[in-house]
Amino acid sequence: MQIMNRNIKAITEFIFVEDIPQKSDVIMVVGGSYPEAAEIAADLWKQGYADTIIIGGGVSKKTGKFLGSRSKREIYSKDYANECEFYTDVLLKNGVDKRAVYGENKSSFTKENAFYARRLADKYCLNIHKAILICKAFHARRCLLFYQTAFPCVEFFVKTFDGFGINKDNWYLSEYGIQRVLGELKRCGEQINADEFIK
């Protein structure tokens, strides 16, 4: 049995947050272009983990547009205007009642995803104590940092999928995986506002 390098182990434990989902008030899907995120949300919704789903996402800050689904294009092949429209289609195709879905199409990066989700929750007077947060595995810590900051009184249960094929068991085995994970580690330090963090 190979012993994991202590530094790799520490980074893995910090970045790759994963919880067992629990019955919650809402399921929140972080913006993105992988249908797996919304498919997981649909499955949890159908199992009764929550009655409401909040989705977010406009267009990429880098490209200024939504480039389409990163996987399963044979199923999700429409010309989607933004991430929210994409996720809505995925949810509906997977059996979610449209009345259960709340979405915003203005956010273009993770921190905005979180704070626009908070605006939606406030606008519709959603009483949230517990939430399931769905995101890519290597993106989990940063998502949790921002969503917990936007919803300081909410208990989050993080549910992930292997975006870009990266997970806690393989990230350090490829140059690409290392770059993505160390990039997340750097952004966790750079992007969180200290005043917001300690509230």
Structural features, described:
The chain is 40% helix and 13% strand. The protein is of the alpha/beta class. The chain has a 5-stranded parallel sheet, with helices on both faces. The termini are far apart. The mean pLDDT is 93.
Q: Helices, strands, pairings?
A:
Elements: H1 6-15, E1 26-29, H2 35-46, E2 53-56, H3 83-93, E3 101-104, H4 110-123, E4 130-136, H5 140-150, E5 155-161, H6 175-191, H7 194-197
Parallel strand pairs: 1-2, 1-4, 2-3, 4-5
Helix pairs in contact: 2-3, 4-5
User: Strand portion, in percent?
Assistant: 5-15%
Strand order of the largest sheet: 3-2-1-4-5
Helix content: 25-40%
Estimated radius of gyration = 16 Å
Q: State the helix count.
A: 7
| Through-space gap between termini | 43 Å
* Basic shape: globular
Report on the biggest sheet: 5 strands, parallel
On the 0-100 scale, what is the average pLDDT?
93
Order of helices and strands: HEHEHEHEHEHH
Structural class assignment: alpha/beta
- Could you give the count of β-strands? 5
Low-confidence stretches: none
Keywords:
alpha/beta, globular, 13% strand, 199 residues, 7 helices, five-stranded parallel β-sheet
